[in-house]
Amino acid sequence: MPAAARALLDLMPGQQQGRVMLGIPRRYSHFVFGIIQSGLTSLIAAGIASLPAGSALVFLEHWMVSWLIAWAAMLPIVLLAAPAIRAFALRLTREERAPCAGRQA
Residues with Cβ < 8 Å from 84, sequence gap 6 or more? Predict the structure, then answer.
């Protein structure tokens, strides 16, 4: 890495072990997760739905428009539903217990 780039990275806040972080407070991690998850999911789903397009250019245009519409629709749903889904998943599952030393399976 050139010295100028390294010096610039050293000046940026939120650097951890050579990785540059945005510095978003951890209390907003739920929203960051929701944005990334809804964006990735809608990107993949819109790409699959756009496959029947004729040419590569038509496919790309249809994919991007479909993705933006799908992401705009999914983002609020993911952000609002995630806590309820997490609570429901916790009700459906149980904590795993460590095996006791005196017990045999």
Answer: none
